Structure formats: C-alpha cells, structure tokens
Model the fold of this input.
Amino acid sequence: MPAKPAPAKKAAKKEAKKEEPAPAPEPAPEPAPEAPPAEAPPAEAPPAEAAPAEAAPPAEGEAPPAEAPPAEEPKAPTPPPPEEPTSEPLELVVEDVNDTSVTIQWRPPATIGNAGLDGYTVECCKEGTGDWKAVNEELTVSCRYVIKNQTTGDKLNIRVVAVNAGGRSPPGVLPDAVLVREVVDRPKIHLPRILRQRYVVNVGEKINLVIPFSGKPQPVVTWTKDGQPLDTKRVNIRNTDKDSIFFIRTSERADSGVYEMCVKVDSFEDKAQLTLQIIELPGPPASVKIVDTWGFNVALEWTEPKDNGNTTITGYTIQKADKKTGDWYTVLEHYHRMNATISDLIMGNTYTFRVFSENKCGISEQATVTKTFATIQKTGIDYKPPQYKEHDFSEPPKFTTVMPDRSTTVGYSTKLLCAVRGTPKPKIEWMKNQMIIGDDPKFRQINNQGICSLEIRKPGNFDGGVYSCRAKNAHGEAVVTCKLEVKRKSGTTRDHKLDRC
Done:
C-alpha cells in the first residue's frame, strides 16, 4: 500500500532532530574545556534537563515560541590599587644636643595612604659629604629618636624617612646642620629674696645659706669677699650642680662684709652680691652728765657709745637711784634723743643717774653713771594765784524768736510761744490788748529756761486780739507781739445766737 511509508519518513526526521546535540554553553571568563567531538554517539549527549534552552518543536498549527534573550557576561573583579609610600615626615626639629648625642623629634606625615605606616628610618651624614647612613637598624615607630655615639665637634645633616609597603617616603630634612656639642645656657644666679637685702646675724650664730643657680654646661662657681679671695678657714663653700652652699660655723664681727658669687660658662657669667652683717650688743654711752637742777627736775645729757655693736643705736634707757637706798628704777625706755629731763623727784632726796645703749640685739650689758649727784632742795612755796578781771555778763532782755500771728477755732485750745534771754533773769508778763493778763485761770503761763508760753484754754469769740509778751530786768525791757484770730464754727445756728449775745 503506497500511502503508509510517508509517516515513517516524518517520524524519522523527528527522531533525527531529537538526536542533535545541545548547543555548547557560552565560554566563561576562565578557559572552558574543549567541546565533545561531533562524532560522539547520541547517548553521550548531555541530558535534556541540562539544556533547558532546547524546546520541543511546536505542534502543527501552533506559532513558534519567542527566542530567550542571551545571558549577560559576568564582569571581572576590580584589581586592588597599587601601594604607594607616605608623604614626608613633618616639623623635624632638634630637641637636645650634647657632646655625644643629638635628640630629634618630628610629626607623622600628613598623607599615609592605604598601605599604612611601618616606621621611620633616621639617616645622617657629615656636613660636606653625601654619605647618608641609617642610624637605626630597625624601623622606629616613635616620633622621637636619640642619635648616639657621635663625635664631639662634628656637624651632621639629619633627615627622617617614613617607610611602608609602598616604599620610602620623601625625606624630612633638618634645614641646618647640627653641631655635636653641649648647648650653652647662660649662667644665672637665683638669689633668694631674703638675701637681696642686708642679712643680719648675731655674733656666735651659725650661718647656712643655699643659693641656687643654673647654666649649661656645669658653671664654674667662685666666691670673693670685699674683692678678695675667701678665707677658707672661716667660710666653707660647697658647690653642687644646682646650688652653692655658704656656711660659717660660728659667726664673728670680722665676717661682716660684701660677698660676691660668680658663676661662669665659657665667656658668659653672672654675679650676685650678699651683704652680711654680724652684730652684737652695744657698749654704754661715752659720758653722762647732769646739766641743771631746778624744782623737782633734773636735766641730763650724754654722748653716743664708742662701740655700737656693728649696727645703729635704736634708743637709750635712763634709770635713777636715791642715794639713801641705792635701788635703780627705770624712768625712760627706748628713748631716742641724747638729752632728757627727769621730773617728779622727791624734795630733799639726792639722786644719781645712769644710761644704757640699745640696738637690734638688745640693751648694753653695762651703763654709764653720772659722776655728780642731784639734790632736790627744800624751799618754801608761796603760791600767788593770778588776778583776773571779772567779766560782766549782765545784759538787757532780748527776744531771740518772734511770735507769729496765729488763728484758732472756738473751743480749741491754742498756745503762743517765744524765747528770750537776759542777765539777770528777766521778769515775764503776758498782755492782751495791752492789758496785763495776770492770774486769769483761762490762761496758763510757763517760763522755762527762757522759753515762754501762753496757753489759751478753749478760746471763745471774744478771746481774739493782740497778745504781747514783755520781759524786764534791771538793764531794760523788751516786748514781742502777735495777733490771734478766733474763728467761729460754721453750720450751727446756736453759734450765731451766741455771737449776738
């Protein structure tokens, strides 16, 4: 039958399409393995689920499916940035220099970068050469370094390099070469405040003074007294690296003077002076004498002592003694003048006097006594009191205040006041309309120490008028007047009727 073979051909074509190998995947960024050979049997082809992109052919009468978009290629990872060195170290300065080493310090670089900072290398070379050598075998992380074991007198150029994984940074260089020698600080004496003035000590006391100083290198200290070298038997000097100790075991007056301390470094020096004054008790006055005697008084004079104890005399003490008892009594103490008058002596007694000197140490151990005596004579006393002319205090009366005009209301008491003076005490009279009031009980008259008052008790309509106060004594009289107005109460009829009456 000729119609049957046709379907077999179609089925064979479909099988042939199914047996075609799946397309190879796109190559990855890394090299892909070689594709399988074309002559490989269909059995070795990848399974159907390994190639999901392969779709079954559409059935007859169906539209073919849309093709899937191709997959995006993955991007390669960004390579890390290259490692870079840091910027140069900043602010390289010299901190200290001595005769064998140089101490430097600096600040970290402004830019360090992603490679970080491993440490610093310190390099130096002698001035005039370009032979730079590292002085630290291992990197230092500190920003301070001491370059040791150098030769005194060499001049060194110094630089510092920061090191990390990116390499060496530009160097931080000192602008000037450094001379390897001890830095000279000018010598300075720090004299204590108490020694800037005259230092006063009593004879026999111990003196122990510590005077600090500074300077670099160690200053040379020397002492002199009044421009001459010190007597080491009297004064002991012990110097340390920071101060000088001035010591006298037992002071004497001969130790007084101006001591000068000098500290010197190379051509620089500093000086300070110490004025030392050794004092003791003064001697007595050179002489004391009685100058005059009168009444109950004796006048004395004396002269300064020959020995003032190496200081100024601050005063004198004067004592007296009665010849009968011989007991001494102090009459003046801390007296500054060299003459005095002794008073309040007893009539008929004989006195002797002595004077002590005084300075900062105290009173002299001895006193100078007068060679003569002073006797207070017994004499009659005829006292005549002075004659004084008696003062006449008499004067006529006079009013010291005026009496102002007054007004009052009916039924309300009022008072008139004035003041008068006069010697002898004047007689006071009160008058109304030039008529003496006398002992009228309606009026109350008071005169107290020249203050005169007239009280009018509950005045009526007829109590108004001119009132006068008259004062009289043997030398005259005086009068003061005022006008009193008595007002009626308003608003009452009875008052008007009383007025008519």
Observations:
- Residues 1-56, 492-501 have pLDDT under 50 and may be disordered.
- Residues 185-279 form a domain with the Immunoglobulin-like fold (CATH 2.60.40.10).
- The radius of gyration is 65 Å.
- The first strand starts at residue 90 and ends at 97.
